[in-house]
Structures are given as C-alpha cells and as structure tokens.
Specification:
CATH topology: Metallo-beta-lactamase, Chain A
GO molecular function: hydrolase activity
Protein name: MBL fold metallo-hydrolase
Keywords: Hydrolase
Organism: Formimonas warabiya
Length: about 260
C-alpha cells in the first residue's frame, strides 16, 4: 500500500504573505494565491492511518484545504508557536467527531509547557513523550525522531516505507550522528529559511546551506521548505526557481506537495 507524505505548510513563522509586509515575495503571493505559504507542517497517510506532523497556527485552514477529515496521531517536532499553535483546533474534532483522545507525541522538555499553554485540553490528547532514535511503527511505515540543531529540544523525523524521507523543517545543519543515519536518503526535506545572510545560524539554514547539506548527506532529492521569503533578502518564487535550476535534484516545497514513499 502506498504511503503519502503531504506538506500542509512550507513557510516560516510569518507566513507568506504576511499581513504586515509588502515585500516582493508577499506581493507575488497576493497576486497569485497558489504561491502563498502557510506555516510549516505535514501529514502522513499510510492508507489506514493519518499522522499529523506539527500543528501550525494555520492548521484548520490547512486541513480544510486538503480535505483531511480525520487524524490518528500527532507528532510535534519542537515547542515553538509556529509548530504547536494549532493544537487547539483539534479540540472539537476530538470531542464531536473522533470521541476518543488523540495520541500526541511531543518533546520531553515540552511537557510542562504544554500543560501551561493548554490546561483546557486534558481529555483531548493522550500525551506521550517521544525519545530520540526510538523507532515508532505504524501501518506500512516506521518513524524515528533524530536530533536537530534548533536551540531547543528539536527532532527531525526519518520516515521509512518503500522509500526513505528525512524531514528536518527547523535545523541549523545536522549533528554528525544524525547526518550519518540519513545518508543516502531518497528525500531530504529541510530548512531553507533564509535567502542571503543567515540571521540565526545556530537555529536555521539559508538556501545555499540547505543545498550543501543535501549534497553532504548524498540525498537523492533535496526539497527546500520553511521558506521565509522575506529575510534576509526578499525573494520571489520565480527568482528561487531560476536559481535552483542549476542544482539537479533540488526543488522548492509548496503547500500541498505530495511525496510518495
């Protein structure tokens, strides 16, 4: 049975367009809504189960757009608002439709923060703290959290079915141990937040750094995601597409993109 990995959102924290911004990237997205980017997240469809990866503040609109009507599990890669801010959108799905708690896998260091942020959701989620390098088995799929570099406890996810995909939406390069494990992956979907100067080199990567990481780990395909488009130099999709055309096997992620595993 085919496993599908779908990118629900491919933008960084501000989204594209941002309500406060009139840069060329935001103008491009306003003129052509197909080029808009919601905050980053993904969903895995194993054919029998659906696994949500991160819950962005845009979650409700993402699920409606992609006609996703059910979920079975939620994995949070880390505890930053643009990756957990949509958890509250799942309350009424659980209470009115699913009628049983969702298993929510979250970073061990985020457990206290979850209870502080969502004291009204104790019956909505069955909380489980994920562990680095533990293999989680689903229908036709294994999922393994590996350490990323993002300033707080953050995982990238290795997904293995017929093909292998590494999803590192927020990271500044990779620890050597992680890089070794994902070497030769069929797909590397990774952080390319900045175009030009990297303002936060200990948390994110630039477009060029992401491309070089793909080469370093010998990824079959490198898919650039978590694209801010605004900083440090505003850039349009048309400009990025032209630039990466010189790099075979490198592509730009977009909202709704599907990768078959």
């Amino acid at each position: 049975m085919t496993v599908e990995f779908k990118l629900l959102g491919t933008g960084a924290g501000p989204g594209v367009p941002s309500y406060f911004c009139d840069c060329p990237a935001c103008k491009e997205a306003r003129e052509n809504p197909c080029l808009a980017r919601t905050r980053s997240g993904a969903v895995i469809d194993t054919g029998k189960e659906k696994i949500l990866i991160d819950a962005s503040p845009d979650l409700r609109s993402q699920l409606v757009r992609e006609q996703i009507t059910s979920l079975d599990y939620v994995f949070l890669t880390h505890w930053h608002y643009d990756h957990f801010g949509g958890l509250g959108d799942l309350e009424f799905y659980v209470k009115l439709s699913r009628r049983q708690p969702l298993k929510l896998f979250l970073p061990p260091e985020a457990l206290e923060a979850f209870h502080s942020a969502y004291p009204f959701l104790p019956e909505v989620f069955d909380l489980i703290t994920w562990q680095f390098e533990q293999v989680y088995c689903f229908e036709n799929l294994t999922l393994t959290p590996l350490p990323a570099r993002h300033g707080i406890q953050t995982a990238g996810l290795v997904l293995e079915s017929k093909r292998k995909l590494a999803y590192f939406t927020d990271t500044s390069g990779l620890p050597d141990s992680t890089a070794r494990i994902i070497e030769g992956t069929d797909f590397l979907v990774c952080d390319a937040t900045f175009y030009g100067e990297n303002w936060y080199p200990h948390r994110h990567m630039s477009l060029e750094e992401a491309i070089q990481l793909g080469k370093k780990v010998k990824a079959g395909n490198t898919v650039l995601t978590h694209l801010a488009m605004h900083y440090s130099t505003p850039v349009t999709v048309a400009q990025l597409a032209e630039e990466i055309s010189a790099h075979p096997g490198v592509s730009l992620a977009y909202d709704g993109m599907v990768i078959t595993l």
